[in-house]
Amino acid sequence: MIDRDQVLHVARLARLELTEAELEKMADELSGILDHVERMNELDLDGVEPTTHVVQLENVLRADTPRPSWPREKILEPAPDPDEGAFRVPSPQA
Amino acid sequence: MSDVLELTAAEAIDRITKGELGSDEYFDAYAEAAAGDELGAYLWRAKPGTSDGATGELNGAPIAVKDIFCTEGIETTAGSRILEGYRPPYTATAVRRLAAAGAQVLGKTNMDEFAMGSSNENSGYGLVRNPWDLERVPGGSSGGSAAVVAARLAPWAIGTDTGGSIRQPASLCGVVGLKPTYGAISRYGMIAFASSLDQCGPLTRDVMDAAILLRVMEGRDHCDSTSVGIEGGVELPSRTDLKGLRFGVPRELASEAEGIEEGVREVFERNVALIQELGAEVDECELPHSAHGISAYYVLAPAEASANLARYDGVRYGLREGASSGTDSELASMYERTRTAGFGPEVKRRIMLGTYALSSGYYDAYYGRAQRVRTKIAEDFATAFERFDYLVTPTSPTVAFELGARAENPLAMYMSDYCTVPMPLAGLPAISIPAGLAQPDGGGPELPVGLQLVSPAFGESGLLDAAHAIEGAIGFDARPVGAAG
Amino acid sequence: MSLPEGYEAVIGLEIHVQLQTQTKMFCGCALSFGDEPNVHTCPVCLAHPGSLPTVNERAVDYALRIGMALECDLAPRSIFHRKNYFYPDNPKAYQISQYDIPLATKGRLGDVRVHRVHLEEDAAKMIHVGQSGRIHGSAHSLVDFNRAGTPLVEIVTEPDLRSEEEAREWAQLLRTTVRQLGVSDVNMEEGSLRVDANVSIRRAGESELGTKTELKNMNSFRFLERGIEAELDRQVGVVESGEEVAQETFHFDPRAGSLTPLRSKEYAHDYRYFPEPDLVPLAPTEEMLSAARDALPELPAKRRERYRDELGLPDESARQLAFDADLGEYFENALDAADGLEPRIVANWVTGELAAAQRHFGHKKDVEPTHVAEVVRMVADKRISHASGREVLHTLSDPGSSVAGPEEVVERRQLEMESDASALEAIVAAAIEAEPAAAEKVRAGNPKAVGPIVGAVMRETKGTADGGEVTRLIREQLGAG
Ligand SMILES: [Mg+2]
Ligand SMILES: [Zn+2]
């Protein structure tokens, strides 16, 4: 169960805007999904190790040897707002 | 010309080697077929006459590539408006390996946005229709790749599978779909949905073609720390019987599978009988926690996705929406407007779900628990593989459903992955092969049913060999009415 | 400044050290040093779709060295996490860092406990363009990703520091330590060493901690001290006026020398940490550990102990020589050259006479450690007097002089002491005759009266005679032994 205010908080964390109508709908849908998800609570999982990786690898390391970086024109080509060889963004303060 | 489209890729490559077929001729046959795509399956197509006469073991064969793979200079969107017009500065390792072996990109296939979906109705660029019935879904998220192979618009294709995104559409479109062991093929350049589950794999006409593509694409890649490749490589399949092999039928994913249709059940039971006739021992078994696979999956995958999709912020590439003058800073406003405009409803839903599951106070209840369920599911498989060489289940509880049928009910849509979700959670390889035709519950046209085979990690060579024997015995030769030729 | 009666400062430091590797933490781009913007980037450090991180082997080695130097417990198996927050300097919108299982924990340096040491990646640089050029009121910002992904080691201390001076001194010790490890140039002005402070106050004797505030951007040791001082003042003010200290982050403004509250990067601070699925665990092997161990030099804290306990140096010069890496090295070399000489004496010359001479000439000309050793040797052998030794070092430190070494100075200035005893006795005898009044007083039992006679001897010997020896001879000849 997740209510409208929680949805609003989560939307802000996720940088998404939801209209009033969308908030309600989202709250309903997420609650429905979470009800199903919470069936996991039937299980006794005490002492069970969490799985983060299915591959049992350790210490996969890269040698500290430089390779050429990408040409600046190439990485600025898809930039929405290139400026002076950099990526321009609106002010975090204004 | 049209008979060229009836060949499997292996057959065509063989003819090219023998000089009976020109590689450019082969490429153009498909370039022209793809140009006539009416399924909405392609987002980008190579033009006829653009074959570069590539050589190598694949003899310049054309291949359809899911739009989730970065292809340098070719628009790559992962089915999302937020990446509209994005031309990657590099090419995915899997595609590079294909090119190095002499394959040529025929087109980029449509998909559910960021691979989130089981019907291909979540693409930002329109839905994909199932060539068997244009009013039905091809499955997803690799629906475009499955549809073009089924409809003879490509000899073969690659896709990605996170919870069933290769196997389920393969099943619904009547083609072969293989999800290799996690780590078999590099994920570098494959746009991430859920990093601990995503795996690249082939969608093909038959098992042999799938084996050929896997053999070319697998291998350790220094760009992907989680890639290991398949030790000893991949042997091409040759089996015609199953003597000496033990097959397990996990009750929870077969007879007791949630929402399994009658027709699917019948086809599956016929297949199980056939497997016995081929000389295998067959017995029932349990995967007690697999019923909780959907629950664990719909916590873990959205959680990882919420982080993987956070980079789409309008700063470095892709869509940017201007800031609005509000209470927030201009920057925060730019972020919110860009992401709100760029993502579709299902992607937003999963980002919300994943963000919530990770947010402070909920991590243990959701993410932590799901990780432990994942452990239990893997243990269930390990136990089963002490008794059996392979497990066999239906790929999808249902045949292809009608467009829009599950669009308004997320949970019902998620249930489409019921039989395919446990394998990626355990990192195991699984293949879906066409197993026959069946009517949906409540009647309708006969539609493809898929049979899923599962093996222990990195057991692909044996898995393909067994699938090859079953494929031969089933002799599936039905073809979609809508298909070219 | 010290807090008013009844208050105690509780200070912990959070340090970020930029590692001096060849490439970034998770991609093969070369590190950048003030280059054009965005010329050291690639799909990985720009977070292009589909790109994946790969861990820099040397960064791990450097982090292990730091963990060992800080006497930490090294985790047999540590993992990376994703720290999620949106900001233009954070291309993936998550920073790959370490969270609940860091590389190293429970260490100490000097008398401050180290809570944890972990590996992470640096953020991009944002240039805020606008009215004041400062972040406040900037019109828009330009992002330069050259720095994005530079390997960082974060070091977090326990709140063991009790004053701004202690904090500054400890940070300087840490800097010397890391500098000696050769893993970073640890320069606060250039940002390769960044020290944030967590500051709180409590009534003396109280055990639980008060609400702490975080101070950032103090980009010199002086500012670190001033920033903490200012914040301690502020907190006392708040408490004195009967209010509560609020949890806040402050930005130190070097120009104004004052603190300004910083806006948070998130609506709420909820970083939603979870294990990074793109990277596998770090489990240092015996090879990795011994490689890091073998690379460790003698570190200040250890060196100080050795100087004090084994070489018998006074505590202060032991500390001075151990905590000043360059001076320490100089002393070590001088000591090698001065074989057999008492370390305490060599240390006195290095930290005393030599330091003075160097200061006098503004450190414009270095003196060979071997030359210092020679001088100390000459004085010890009574070839020259202490005063002459000082003069030699003075000359050697003089940029204007062009002497080859101590011998030449002694030569030119004829500083050699009268070694022929009989000759010196004769000079003493003559001096006694020349100063009958003084001689009388000495005979009468007033030892202090030798002054004028000694002076006469020194005039005769141009100061090369050893004062002690001269006094002894005078007393002897006057029968006032
Ligand atoms: Mg940090
Ligand atoms: Zn880079």
Which terms would index this structure?
heterotrimer, A: 94 residues, alpha+beta, Histone, subunit A, two-stranded antiparallel sheet, 10% strand, C: 481 residues, 9-stranded mixed β-sheet, 3-stranded antiparallel β-sheet, 15 helices, 15 strands, 39% helix, elongated, binds magnesium ion, binds zinc ion
Describe this structure as you would to a colleague.
The complex is a heterotrimer of chains A (94), B (485) and C (481). Chain A has 94 residues and is an alpha+beta fold. Helices cover 35% and strands 10% of the residues of chain A. Chain A has a domain at 4-42: Histone, subunit A (Orthogonal Bundle). Chain A contains 3 helices and 3 strands, in the order ααβαββ. The longest helix of chain A has 18 residues, at 20-37. With 485 residues, chain B is α/β, with parallel strands linked by helices. The longest helix of chain B is centred in the last third of the chain and has 24 residues, at 364-387. Chain B has an 11-stranded mixed beta sheet, sandwiched between helices. In chain B, α7 links the parallel β7 and β8 (281-285). In chain C, the strands form 3 sheets. Chain C has a 9-stranded mixed beta sheet, with helices on one face. Chain C is elongated and about 100 Å long. Classes of the chains: A alpha+beta (94), B alpha/beta (485), C alpha+beta (481). At the B-C interface, α8 and α9 of B face loops of C. β3 of chain A pairs antiparallel with β9 of chain C, so a sheet runs across the interface.
Write the layout of secondary structure elements.
The complex is a heterotrimer of chains A (94), B (485) and C (481).
Chain A: H1 4-13, H2 20-37, E1 61-62, H3 72-76, E2 82-83, E3 86-90
Antiparallel strand pairs in A: 2-3
Helix pairs in contact in A: 1-2
Chain B: H1 9-18, H2 23-35, E1 42-45, E2 62-66, H3 93-100, E3 104-109, H4 143-150, E4 156-161, H5 167-173, E5 176-179, E6 199-204, H6 207-217, E7 246-250, H7 262-277, E8 281-285, H8 293-308, H9 330-342, H10 345-358, H11 364-387, E9 390-394, H12 410-414, H13 422-426, E10 430-438, E11 447-454, H14 460-474
Parallel strand pairs in B: 2-3, 2-4, 7-8, 7-9
Antiparallel strand pairs in B: 1-3, 4-6, 5-6, 5-10, 9-11, 10-11
Chain C: E1 7-18, E2 55-56, H1 57-69, E3 73-74, E4 81-84, E5 94-97, E6 104-109, E7 112-121, E8 125-130, E9 138-144, E10 151-157, H2 164-181, E11 193-203, E12 213-216, H3 221-240, E13 249-253, E14 258-261, E15 274-275, H4 286-294, H5 300-309, H6 315-323, H7 325-337, H8 343-360, H9 369-380, H10 386-397, H11 406-413, H12 421-434, H13 436-443, H14 451-461, H15 467-477
Parallel strand pairs in C: 12-13
Antiparallel strand pairs in C: 1-10, 1-11, 3-6, 4-5, 4-15, 6-7, 7-10, 8-9, 11-12, 13-14
Helix pairs in contact in C: 1-4, 2-3, 5-6, 6-7, 7-8, 7-9, 8-10, 9-10, 12-14, 12-15, 14-15
The structure holds magnesium ion (MG) and zinc ion.
